[in-house]
Protein 1
Amino acid sequence: MCGIAGTYRWPDGNVVTDKLTDILAHRGPDGAGRYSHPAGDGEVHLGHRRLAIVDLTETGAQPMVSDGLALSYNGELYNAPELRAELAASGVRFRGTSDTEVLLEAWRRWGTDCLPRLRGMFAFAVFDERTGDLVLARDQLGIKPLFLLRRGGGLVFASELKALAAVTGGSLRVDDAALVASLLYYWVPDSRCAYREAEKLPPGSWLRCRPDGRVERARYWNLKDVAAEARDGGQPDLAAVVEESTRRHLLSDVPVATFLSGGLDSSYLTALAARHQPGISAYTIGFRAEDARFEAMPDDLRYARQVAERFGVDLHEIEIAPRVLDLLPRMTYHLDEPIGDPAAINTFLICEAAREAGVKVMLSGMGADELFAGYRKHLANLIALRYQRVPRPLRRAAHATVDRLPVATARRGYRSVRFAKRFLSFAELPEETAFRRSYTMYDRGELLDLLDPDLAGTVEDVLGEHADVYGDNDLDDFVNRMCLADARMFLPGLNLTYTDRSSMAASTEVRVPYVDVEVVRAAFAVPGDRKIVKRQGKAVLKEAAASVLPREIVYRPKGLFSAPLRAWMSRDLAPLVREVVHDGELVRSGFLRRDALRRMVAEDAAGRRDYSKHLWHVLTLEYWYRGATSGSGRNPHVTA
């Protein structure tokens, strides 16, 4: 895992690449490298920051240059041993043991045709000195980030958006549509970027820049097609597929540990990892007792301890009682774009603790909920279909009753009431609209009330994009349509994004064995009625895990990798909320409407609605917007 950056036929490219690479130092504290070469009437410059994981010697250093090819690469290839053997059999002689060298030689032999053969997470730039071409490529599922910006015939790219913002001298303009999307989802979809000129290279694609100014793009892997093909194939041995992926993700020359929440996904991975690495370390979190009580959070620690004891895992427990006011600007800087999921703080603090203990690599259970229908929204949308058959007078009575119930008092919150209010907000809507409303922050009317009226057309564009993505499939299975939409939007837009930025802020690599091309194929080969059985989500994954884990772990209520937001918002952050609502930059600019924000604060304080997550995201959006419009892009924890 590393940070990559570079320029191609860009003014002052040498100086710009130095600055890009310096900004990414947290992604690779183990080494830095640079490469330069003529490219047409300009130059190419590649930068690299190294987090040494495989082949810790200089033979794994980057940018790697060999016989006319130069490569700057971020990621891990879990099928590197097989590719190395195939290339060696054809006569390739390797200098070291890194997967970087395997990738470079695979590119030399197969060019872009090597990309579908790669199994792992990656984003890279490769320059061909003979042709003057620069190619950027990103992994199939969008695990690793790659941002780029084109002006004229030139290009600049980096692993993180903040680097591009910093080297353009504050000239990038905020994209209103991206901020509207961020308010809707609490993250920016992978198809959009928070700055107008910048973009994210789409998952499963490559881009080629030629010295004459031509640019070519292509997709080499499409999740929609993979899901349709998998549906028509045979039923997989899911347990074998997940175990094989977990084993491959342990490939490392440094210690590997796991996240262990005590839930199904992380417990299953930890148990499988312990088979191959006995005594493996795991990290788990707990919250201050008063915060957990206020939020009515489940006691996940006892489940994590049970798994650790059963499988001989060295468990490290971290109590999270963060200085939220200090962490909020720091995390907003590292997350690159406005992301309102407090789980990013959990990830950062766990990775920071692991790094201090000498651990560079962590395995995460990310992705299982999206692929196997494990979120409450998946079950809730199925229940909604049945609810729509309930006589209308009974539904009206249910709405009226639930509407009168408080979501919280001064002393505690009521999760069941929050869930009921959420369910009724979408239960009678059409399929795509209901699915969107089941996990987004606002309905259409609420979003329009919150925003500058001039942005009404932008709201329609953002809502239309969700409808287009959701409808773009060949599946006749409701559950798998939801899973596909999640894997295309929610997974790369939110979960993989905050996992990458939060972990790399702590100079730690997080690997995601469920987000693996073979696991994905297996997941979409499973029909929806095997993913949700009765009221059990992830039923097929639970069947696979039951041969390894105790039933108490497999069939326990779903945990939450989240944070006690209501406690934080009503205590630690209450003065900041008042400041931002009354006189924040978003309000003063006219982007957000003060009266709508005040109503949200009042209803939340009275316990009528739970707006804690909405207000948390307003704070993250405010901090991001301040940094973006100041043009500084400065790390708030680095003094000038």
Note: Residues 478-505 form the longest helix (28 residues).
Protein 2
Amino acid sequence: MKQKLAFAFYCMVCIFCWLPAMAQDMGWPRQVTKDGATLIYYQPQIDSWDNYKTLAGRMAFSLTPSGGNQSVGVASFTASTDVDKETRTAYLTNIKVTDVRIAGQQGSSTANEEMLFRKLLPVNEQSIAVDRLLADMHQDKSDVKTANIKNDPPKIFYSTNPAVLLLVQGKPVLSPIAKSDLQFIVNTNWDLFFDKKDNTYYLLADKGWYSAKDVKGPYTMTRTLPKDMSKLPAGENFDEVKKMIPAPANAQPETIFYSDEPAELILFKGAPVYTRINGTDLLYGANTDNDFFVDSKTQKFYVLLSGRWFSAGSTSGPWEFATNNLPEDFKKIPSGSPKANVLASVPGTVEASDAVMLAQIPTTVTVNKAEAAAKVQVHYDGTPEFKPIETTNLQYAVNTQDKVIKDGDIYYLCFQGIWFMSTRPEGPWQTADAVPQEIYSIPPSSPVYNVTYVTQTDATATTVESSYTAGYLGMFIFGAAVGACIAYGTGWWYPPYFYWGAGAMFPIYHPWPMTYGVGAVYNPWTGGYAVGRRAYGPYGAAGSSAWYNPATGRYGRSASVQGWYGGRTSAAAYNPWTGGAAATHQGHNAYAQWGNSVATRNGNAIQTGHISTRNGTVAGYRTNNGQSGIVHTGANGTVVRNNNGNVYAGHDGNVYRKDAGGGWSKYNNGNWNNVQHPAGNNANRPNLSGATRDNISPETLHGLNQSAASRQRGNFQTQRFQNWQRGGGGFQRGGGGFHGGGGRFRR
């Protein structure tokens, strides 16, 4: 296809370029004013986030009654959370204040101030940037559930000359083109044709045509095409192919690398040019789209592919898995480096920890059981066919693109993030209240493994709560010896399914998602993988280049890509991990296609980039009448952002302030007193209040310093994400990662 069309589809992987900038954290602290009384409450300090659904934490606050004096205190609370990953915003609901402590006071005055605090504290949903929560959670060393994914290196090609990677999943599947002797190969990532007259393959790769007698090559550039090329039908993306007929006379030849299994291509633009990363022995390839490094000390090469590191002593290999034993210098890559994006895949870094935590945060909706079940249909190619799932007593359907699992006489369907059940493989289906526990023991070697990341709980007569985490969309946590990381795909190669119907001229073809050959690169702002490279063709991955239409009995063609938020195409959007499909130009998550009558979040309608609620406008909420902003006006008064956020709740129940010089002061009896540090060295910390110094324990001081560092990093990350979002949510491969800039996929 012409480069213009291919580039347009690469641009589509830049997730969120359409998101509204208003859906953001309004900042901290926040101030409430009502009936002359004022409450300032500071950014919560998180003590735990159980299953990324229930928060427990504490917050410092100051309270000034109408006509009274200011008092300061600490409030402990719990809250349920609902996370919108598209805007990186957590919404706190069911907020319950479990304890209120007023510094230096007791008795009836404390009771009155506690009552006023509870009256003023907003009880509606509160928003907070996910990055602020993640920064606090780095203090929590809770265990991480990892997947036993496969990390064997794929076939890796290397070139310093112009080249493309031609992937065919298994044997070529040829589909006839009406009124011609031509056939097009369905299961490939480039436009590949076969002419039955001269038994020759014709490949349109990037800017030129190539021919070969064998599908595996070798391919040579040609300017002579079969006459039947003029008979290509209109539509089905053939229009772009027709623009390349006759073959361009000025096209420059490229090397064609062929593989019938998942593979990757390391492609330099000429002789390698390396740039040193300051403070390390690492150099990175500056003239390649790959994340390619050289350790100058050992002369070893390293490449990052689908979240996994591989190393070799030579660019020709052999390559071996290296995530577990990366040189320490990878951790020293500066956050401002053009290669800082790889830090999310370096075990032991804060960026990797962020990615792992984000992957565990569930997307949750409340499902209307009757309406959901009414929309479900499953199509099989022929009679439903099931195969055993190893290490279990379960079976899965192989001749459908939907995930149907057989447990005894009951069939379970995971469809767009919701579980259904039936006594027949074709349905009718009813929404399940829960599924057998054995489903969650399905191993990664099974092509339906991703359904183990979907749960169904809290069922009532009419509704059920459905949740999924990153694994459902093809992103998995794996346990490196020095820390957990995330990877794209299970690493397993699932052979495609072929079905020859009675009298069929060509088989029906069902691919499974691929780990390699899709150019997957982690985007720390979306929490998922952006996919697509020019060298990998206009169709992203071979598994999603064609779709079978049971109504016509033929294949359609669409340029779709695999990605965290689903497929994006001009003809049909298809996510090979979830089986979701929709006629849309936007990306979609698993629940977005159901509609507001089926799936809702906390009873509020799901909107693009925001949640609509009748409770008012709060920090990125938009009301049903369309108003928006960062100020909330409701029954509890007016909430605005305040600018001084350096007050903290200590673990000892006291309120502390971080001073400009880096020291700490404690609030006591209306004054801020410099604290006596455990080391006793306060010579450079003058007592600005004139009061005596207060003591502080080493544990409390350590906790305060951690909270201050976390708040600083959370604020920095939040601002970076908001700048990225305002700039269009663009992604630049091979030159600095993710940045603002019009939402384009920049090369």
Note: The chain has a mean pLDDT of 77.
